Fold this protein.
Amino acid sequence: MSERKQEVINALRGKGIDIIKVEKEVIALLRKGTSSLDVREYFKKILGDERK
Amino acid sequence: MSEVRVELENIGVFRERKELTLSRGLNILYAPNASGKTSLISGLKAVSVLVLTPDELRRALNDYEDRGRVKLEIDGAEYVVELIRRPDNTVEAWGKRFAEDGIIKKVAFIDLENKLVNAIYAGNEEEVKRELREIVGVSFIETVLTVLEGIKSEYEYQYQSKKRDFESKREEILEQRKRLKERLNEVENKIEKIVSDPRIEPARKEIEEIRAERDKLLKQLEDERRREIEVNNRLGLLEHDYDRKKRDLEDLKERREEKLAELSKLEAILISTRKEIEKLENEIQELEKTRRQVEQDRKEIGKIIEERRSVLGYAQCPKCGAPVDRDRVIQEIVELEEKAVKLRESLDSIRREVEARRARVQELKERVEEEAERLRRSINEMTKTITRLESEIGKIESSIRKEREALDEIRKQIEALEDKLRALDDRLEALKDKVPLIEELRYLQEEEQHIRKVLEYLFGREQQLKQVYSEVERLEELVETTSLMIEYFRIRLNELKRVVVEKINEAVLKHFRLLSLAELEYPVLAEDFTLTLSRAGGIATRLAELSDAEKAIFTILMTMALKDYVVPDFPFYIVDSVIEFIDDARAGEVLKYLMEVGKNKVVIVSKTKPYSGQPSLLSQEDIFINNIPF
């Protein structure tokens, strides 16, 4: 694993985001046929910027 | 060797219920066209993967039926999918599938609906590349990057515009404050000059008293105005929070209404399902009755056979003394045994029917009742959230009330202080005749008071601006987080491209026998996902230049390699029709190979006729000769 990748993972972890888990979840969503719009909503939720 | 059971009801060409048993290893389906080979595969696809196209769903359901069902039993687990035709002729599927992964369809179901298969056959290398990128997940990461970049630019735009807004407002305020403070200094100096002017001597004592009182009042007024600003800001935040929670509450109530409507529809279905269950239970009872009757008949026939056999050893019947006609008795026994066999078959069939109906009852109960339960749970959750929100809104309302009361109180105070100031002004005004300078002093004091009021107003705006700044900071944080996510997925994309090509080429090499059957050389995939096909001796060739048989072998090779990489645990690998393009000699080799590599999987190959070539290559236990009528 590249040093920079680990740094990015740690920086995101510091912000409360487990990016490895996020990657798994989002790829599973796309493999299930989820639309880009729903993927966008998923990321907004991860970023804590949900619109109700 | 564990078996795999598939039950199809109104699927493809099959109407009513059809049961098929598959084995681990190679299963060859051979039957003429329209016998049901593709129907079985469509059914398996429907129960195996979640993402089917509208055409695939329509083709899976029998043209004359509105409901169909597929049940798969594998490794002790059961998966059931129901297909329902809607009034607009679209078909919906729901139930428990083997997997939710849409990629499975692309690498495990090798039929003429498969986009990769079609692209290979069309010799369309660009399309093949696009499909490969999707199958291995590269295009998914690219989609993620596009989505994240869109989100980032949205945040950046918001951040820049809010920041600009904040900065220009702050500058404006600072500029205004600077100007006002300068003017205030001037005014204060002028007042000071007047107060120290000898011309005010006749009323100096009173003027100084009024000024001291005035300074005290101005100080109190300043404190009250600051309090007014603070309370006003708190009130603004509370009202904002109140509006947001109110909107959430309304939205939630609306969604709960929708769920309640859905539940009431489902409850109506539940009633009809209960009737259906009742009907099935009555049928079970009837069948049980028939079963008991048939068993009784069998026992009686058994007794009669015993009786007939017991007289065979005698010349005369030991009971009635009549002479025994052996041929007639033997004939009777044969007829009775035939009848007993028929009764046993009928009993078995009744037992199967009873079991099937019981399973259907169970399934109906689970399906509708589980769905209703899920809805009830969701409604309960919503009700809990609604109660929580209502309580929070109640608390906010009470805080708003308190703050408004405090604000009213402060405003009253301000009014009272302003009245007092006016009274002092009147006292000063009364001294005008004694000291003409008083008029100028009054004018300056009014200006001073006005400047102080505007300065307090600017202080309030500055406080509000701090709230805008917290939004700017939040957006800055979001831009930073999104940038990090983009960087992570870019690193992953590069890693994936490198690793995937390597892994797929390794998997291709594992199936080198197929590679040589297609008369191709290793490697197959270049780093940018283009196919690099070459013949013996490294002579470059193109997909479009391969024969149909070579394309078929190459299709099987590529999909097996991809399946090994993306979904190694999926138990099925199905080749429908594609094998027909391969000549018998090589088809035999391909089948032999599939039999070897597919020992722990369920490999299904369908074709319209058995091979004339080398059937001995396939052992009987590995061959599934279907019982599709033809």
About this structure: The radius of gyration of chain A is 12 Å. Residues 19-52 of chain A form one domain. Chain A touches chain B at residues 2, 4-5, 8-9, 11-12, 15, 17, 19, 22-23, 26-28, 30-33, 36, 39-40, 43-44, 47, 49, 52 (CB under 8 Å). The CA atoms of residues 45 and 51 of chain A lie 9 Å apart.
